[in-house]
Amino acid sequence: MIRPLVILPDPVLRQLSKPVERVDDDLRRFADDMLETMYDAPGIGLAAIQVGTPLRMVVIDLSKEDEPKAPQIFINPQIVAQGDAPSVYEEGCLSIPDYYAEVERPDTVTVKYLDRDGKERVLDADGLMATCLQHEIDHLNGVLFIDHISKLKRDMVVRKFKKLAKDKQPSGLVV
Ligand code: GNR
Ligand code: NI
Asked: What contacts 143, CB < 8 A, 6 or more positions away?
């Protein structure tokens, strides 16, 4: 089931997500909904809070269009180590549609998490996977990629999305 995305400036995006306590069939079904929503968007990652559920779960698929799908589920992901070198990527976010900006983050991260069977795993990530995992884990803490750009740019984006949300209010509907 494709779920509606939560869009800036919805305060839900600023919530702190809670650890998953049990990896069961309900959770796996929810993860499948997240993947379906991410593929539909389309995006390369999605945090549960982006569909309104404040749980510490992330899905990622970095496969290219002409490659087989490679869905990955990260439950309760934690960054346990990060590289010293910075890396800059142009980031976007499904909760901030059509806005892109360069963000600097550590170039590598080691992430500890539970897989879809509830088994503890450790992943050493670099490149786009390192960037994406940091972007998604930020979401679990109520942090957005625009929090890593200049205040001037951030204020411009937030103002634009506030106006878009206001224009979409039913009160502004002219029949
Ligand atoms: O689809 C997405 N693309 C992307 C590009 C660069 C860095 C991070 C991302 S994640 C984003 C999907 C999303 O909003 N995940 O939270
Ligand atoms: Ni995002």
From this structure: none
Residue among 49, 133, 139, 123 at smallest CA distance from 89: 133
User: How remote is the CA of residue 140 from the centroid of ligand 1, in Å?
Assistant: 14
Domains in the chain with CATH codes: 11-167 (3.90.45.10)
SS3 30: helix
Residues near ligand 1 (Cβ within 6 A): 43-47, 50, 89, 91-95, 131-132, 135-136, 139
Nearest to 99 by CA among 46, 166, 154: 154
pTM above 0.90, yes or no: yes
Residues 84-123: tens digit of each pLDDT? 999 999 999 999 999 999 999 999 999 999 999 999 999 9
Q: Which helix (H) or strand (E) holds 98?
A: strand 96-106
Q: Which two tokens stand for residue 140?
A: 């679990």
Does 136 participate in catalysis according to the annotation?
yes
For the residues of 110-169, what is the DSSP string, one character each?
EEEEE-TTS-EEEEEEEHHHHHHHHHHHHHHTT--GGGGS-HHHHHHHHHHHHHHHHHTS
Query: What's the CA gap between 26 and 134, in Å, rounded?
Result: 26
